[in-house]
Structures are given as C-alpha cells and as structure tokens.
Amino acid sequence: MAWKIGMSSEDMGGNDARVNGEITREAAKSVGGLPIFTSRLLLWSFGVGVIPPAALVMALELRSLLLLEYVHVISGGTWTGFDLFMSVILGRILASLDLPGRVEVAKRLTPTTFFIMPSLASTAITAGIYLAESLGTFVLTSPWIIASGIVVIILTAQGFGIFMPNSLRIFIELAKPSPDRAKIARLNGINIRLAGVQGVMQLAIILIMAHLAVYPP
Q1: Among candidates 56, 91, 99, which has minimal Cα distance to 75?
Q2: Does an H or E element contain 64, and which?
Q3: Where are the alpha helices (DSSP H) in the chain?
Q4: 10 Å Cβ neighbour count for 181?
Q5: What are phi and psi for residue 97, nearest 5 degrees?
Q6: d(CA 217, CA 213)
Q7: pLDDT tens digits, one per residue of 53-108
Q8: What is the full DSSP assignment across 141-163?
Q9: Angle (nearest 5°) at CA 136 between 130 and 139
Q10: Residue 31: in which H helix or E strand, if any?
Q11: What is the rounded CA–CA span in Å between residue 175 and residue 34?
Q12: What is the pTM for the complete model shown?
C-alpha cells in the first residue's frame, strides 16, 4: 500500500512538472518581445475598445437622442464599475498575493484594460457633452456644469497622464529579457489605487449629472 501511494505521489509530481513545463514554454513564446498571451489580450482589448466609440458615432449619425443617452449611460456605468471593481475587489485580492502572483495578474490585467478603459472614458465624456447640448443643460455659467468639467479634466489627466504611461512602462518591462518583477507589481499597484480614486470621482460626477437631470440650469 505504501509503495502504491509512493508511486501515486511520484506520478502527481511528474504531472505537475509537465504542466509547469508547458506553462513555461507558453510564456517563453513572444510577439514583439511580449509574451504571446499578453499580445493576444492586447489585441482583444483593441477589438472591444472599438465598440463604444463606434456606437457613439452611430448615435450621432442617426441623430438618435435615445441611442446617445444609452451610449452615455452604458459607457459611463461600465467605466465606473471597472474602476470600483479594480480598487475594491481586485485590490484586496492582489494584497493577499505574493510578488510573483501580483506580477502574473499584472501581465494579464494591463493588456486587457489598455484600450478598453480609455475607450469607455472618452466615449462617456464625449457622449455626455453631446447629450447635455441636446437637452439644453450645457450652460457654462452653471456651477454644476463647471464642477463636472473640473472632475472630467482631473479624470482625463489621471487616465492619460498616469494610468496609460504606467501601462506602457509595464509593457516595456515585459518586453525585456529579464523583467523587473518588483517594478511591474509597483506600477500595477499604482494603477489599481488610481482606479479607486477615479471610481470615487466618477460617483461624484454621477451625483452632479443626477442633480442636472432633476434640476436643470
């Protein structure tokens, strides 16, 4: 019985080794210096990221107020939900992982969100401006419109000034023969915390939009 158990453990060890070997070989494959799974996720992110602006263009071409409002609400809500999930849920998960685990998450999270997040943000903001103009609520002298403009400027500066440059730095690090895992984890951690800040600010702008809908200027 002991001999059979010993053989079973050895077999399991061999299976683990084969699985780990396959993962290592898969990770070793690269496209342009990046791991192949990173390149595939980046391509997928681009494909999904094209959808929101395409829907916005369709709404403007059709002059459909209903479709324009739908695009604004769905893109803004998805953007906010992404940020809150990343900070509240994913942030806690990453905090419980060791350094290699955080790096593996960053390798997959960064390319997946690289095009989607800017696409959602740009679409939500642009659709919101067109919608406000169509409804006659885009009054630049209104303190609520000014407040929403300030929040939008801050969100845009954070997204294109911090979030995307950090993502590019992660890609550059991943393309190196020996990536700095600590740097990757640190940059990804900054982006996760930034997502939390953006989520709170998006909740604030939703409050402003709700006020404008009920009490138009």
Answers
A1: 56
A2: none
A3: 2-28, 36-49, 51-62, 65-84, 91-95, 99-113, 116-135, 143-158, 164-174, 181-214
A4: 16
A5: -95, 155
A6: 9
A7: 999 999 999 999 999 999 999 999 999 999 999 888 998 898 898 988 988 888 88
A8: T-HHHHHHHHHHHHHHHHIIIII
A9: 90
A10: strand 30-31
A11: 5
A12: 0.78
- Alpha-carbon distance of 117 to 82, in angstroms, equals 8
Query: HSE-up of 61 (CA within 13 Å, CB side)?
Result: 6
Yes or no: say if 90 and 35 are a contact pair by the CB < 8 Å rule. Answer: no
Enumerate the domain spans of the chain: 1-29, 32-214
Torsion of CA 114, 116, 121, 123, to 10 degrees: 140
- State residue 179 phi and psi, 5-degree precision: -65, 145
Number of other CB atoms surrounding residue 127 within 10 Å: 26
Q: Which amino acid is at 135?
A: L
Closest CA to 82 of 120, 110, 49: 120
- Taking the CA of residue 132 as centre, how many other CA atoms within 13 Å lie in the half-sphere pointing to its CB? 23
Joined tokens for residue 195? 């997502």
